[in-house]
Write a structure and sequence with these properties.
Elements: H1 3-8, E1 16-17, E2 20-21, E3 23-24, H2 35-47, H3 58-77, E4 85-88, H4 91-106, E5 112-116, H5 125-134, E6 137-141, H6 151-157, E7 162-168, H7 180-189, E8 193-197, E9 216-218, E10 231-235, H8 237-240, E11 253-256, E12 261-263, H9 277-293, H10 295-314, E13 319-322, E14 333-338, H11 343-352, E15 355-356, E16 358-360, H12 365-370, E17 376-380, H13 387-404
Parallel strand pairs: 3-15, 5-6, 5-7, 7-8, 8-9
Antiparallel strand pairs: 1-2, 4-10, 9-10, 11-12, 13-14, 14-17, 16-17
The chain binds pyridoxal-5'-phosphate.
Length: 405
């Protein structure tokens, strides 16, 4: 793959920080956006902008068609049908939609919700709130001492009381790829619904809801080259029938009288108010960008980069990488702690070298606590990163050691 050519698509990567080429390794927080996506959004606003599903004038019809075409493209990316993909602002909103619209209606006292200690707060706090509201019990699956998903503990927590299993596909800290196929199979056996948080994975590993029959899937548009403020949540068609509405107002109704309202049918029922049409068009263009490159090639490239960075970081004394060592079960990221040096200090020195990484608890406080640390530093890759970027990271880390030790 010609990484230099791919980089040409991302104008921001031409920036210099402290006179050095920007090395952007914070893709798990948000990705950069290619020209193709930026152009699609500009084109929409310059030529077609209007509100959707309301007007009968030409622009409104065009905008509505473009919005629904975007829905087809984004749904297709995860193997879903267009009437199963709801546009939301971010993965967090997608998960909350499921917690409120499905959870509040279907979870009762005595039921159990199973999640893991690996989760981003976005896939933990909504279940804490739901269990407090309903009286259901929240079961949190542990990790091994290496920070890897503990399938034995998962099996021990599954029972006929389990109504929902909510797990991440790829950890945003350890990079671990969880065995979601097996998790789904086991969960279905006890009759539980399954939600997968694919915020870190859909764009790097792919996810097909026809292959892994989950009920709900959340993706994060801004982490997959789309603008911020647009994402999708897959809601299996049959499960939609068991769902209440999420937010109420315009756009999601069929009929309203003074005292009551009837809901629209299909995905519109979950999209109250004016949607982010330009964002949806940008997200569809981002999907096309991934499809042109091919998810297999993206995965292969990031796997090689991860292997290279594990080897190179392994050479640094006093640095401990968190999570699995095998790249087969690890996505494109590496997270570490450095003896005697705070994660924020590491990130600050790296920034002065033009290397952008993330430090802190990465919205996974329970996982950090379980691993006995308060903070860590993370480098996360995408298709425009290469081995030179990893070398720059390693050089930066040598400087960190010089400054602090
Ligand atoms: C695994 C995981 N889930 C959920 C989220 C939340 O995503 P968003 O910021 O799109 O709500 C993130 C964001 O970092 C994440 O890494």
């Amino acid at each position: 793959m010609d990484i230099q050519k791919i980089r040409q698509d991302f104008p921001i990567l031409k920036r210099k920080i402290e006179g050095k080429r920007l090395v952007y390794l914070d893709n798990a927080a948000t990705s950069q956006k290619p020209r193709q996506v930026i152009r699609a959004i500009t084109d929409y606003y310059e030529k077609h902008n209007a509100n959707v599903h309301r007007g009968i004038h030409r622009l409104s019809e065009e905008a509505s068609e473009m919005y629904e075409e975007a829905r087809r493209v984004v749904a297709g990316f995860v193997g879903a049908k267009e009437d199963e993909m709801v546009f939301v602002r971010n993965a967090t909103e997608g998960i909350n939609l499921v917690a409120y619209a499905w959870g509040l209606k279907n979870i009762k006292k005595g039921d159990e919700i199973v999640t893991t200690v690996i989760e981003h707060h976005a896939n933990l706090v909504p279940w804490q709130k739901l269990s407090k509201k309903t009286g259901a019990k929240l079961q949190v699956v542990d990790v091994t001492d290496e920070g890897v998903f503990d399938i034995k503990d998962f099996k021990s927590k599954l029972s006929s009381r389990t109504k929902l299993v909510a797990v991440v596909h790829m950890s945003n800290v350890t990079g671990e790829i969880l065995p979601v196929k097996e998790i789904t199979k086991l969960s279905k056996r006890v009759g539980a619904k399954v939600l997968v948080d694919a915020a870190q994975s859909a764009q790097h590993l792919g996810f097909d809801v026809r292959e892994i029959q989950v009920d709900f899937l959340a993706i994060a548009g801004h982490k997959m080259m789309a603008p911020m403020g647009i994402s999708g949540v897959y809601l299996k068609k049959e499960v939609q029938l068991e769902m209440d509405v999420f937010m109420t107002g315009g756009g999601m109704i069929r009929e309203v009288s003074k005292q009551s309202a009837k809901w629209a049918k299909g995905v519109e029922k979950f999209e109250a108010g004016t949607p982010n049409v330009g964002g949806a068009i940008g997200l569809a263009e981002a999907v096309r960008y991934h499809e042109r490159l091919g998810l297999d090639r993206i995965r292969q490239h990031e796997k090689e980069l991860t292997k290279y960075s594990l080897d190179r970081l392994g050479e640094i004394r006093g640095l401990k990488v968190i999570g699995p060592k095998e790249v087969e079960i690890r996505g494109g990221m590496v997270t570490w702690v450095m003896e005697g040096i705070h994660a924020h200090d590491v990130a600050q020195v790296l920034d002065s070298e033009g290397v952008a990484v993330r430090s802190g608890h990465h919205c996974t406080m329970p996982l950090h606590e379980r691993l006995g640390i308060t903070a860590s530093t993370r480098a996360s890759f995408y298709i425009y990163n290469d081995k030179d970027d990893v070398d720059r990271l390693v050089e930066g880390l040598e400087k960190v050691k010089k400054v602090f030790i």
